[in-house]
Amino acid sequence: MSALLNYKLEGEGHTIVLIHGLFGNLDNLGLLARDLKNDHQVLSVDLRNHGISFHNDEHNYDLLAQDIKQLLDHLSINHAIVIGHSMGGKAAMKLAAIAPEIVTRLIVLDMAPVAYTTRRHDNVFAGLNAVIDAKPTNRRDAMAILAEHIELEGVRQFIGKSLFNNGEHMEWRFNVRALEKNYWDILGWNTIEPCSIPTLFIKGGLSEYVTAEYQAEIKAQFTQARAHVVANTGHWLHSEKPAEVLRAIRKFLIV
User: Fold this and answer.
1) Which residues are catalytic?
2) Can you give the residue ranges of the AB hydrolase-1 domain (predicted)?
């Protein structure tokens, strides 16, 4: 049994579990948590190798789902709505597969239950490793190194949230070595048995992560799936268009 995930629990009512994506932490879905905690108990987690949760050499969806189930058991949460973004969406889908008695509704933000073949993060890993090698002593220098590899300011700011000073130099909270080693497992997916839990896939209209070609695989694995597209937004739909995403979530929860 692994150590418990770091978590934050807010609000009261039926539990909603929020699961972040790759290179994130439990604050990434904070815009959603801020609203949902008004009438639900909201459990936000740091996945293994992220935030201040434990580091481990292994990182795959079976383990991510088991980590979350272990935390739910520890907190005596027997029923929960589960919301996951990107890698966290796949962890949420795997949790529904291994613990269907717990997951009452499932909401997946911009992710499909498929194995992706395109490496989208090689420049990110290059930047992370450059910071590790250089051991900068302040945040400004670390971000300057990151900028040599990561063109988009928004991505650098997102990644930079996981920088901290270990007393000697700047360091990453996530386990870069393990995430890079297990990257194909993160992109990958093992098809699950058909799941009848009511499921909502919310897609960014401009994103390439959920496309029409994946529709058959979604329907085969999630028999009660429905879809909602948030127009004019990409993969980070929950931070770009939080009001629209929340509206879709709340509509789904009252049906």
Assistant:
1) 86, 235
2) 15-242
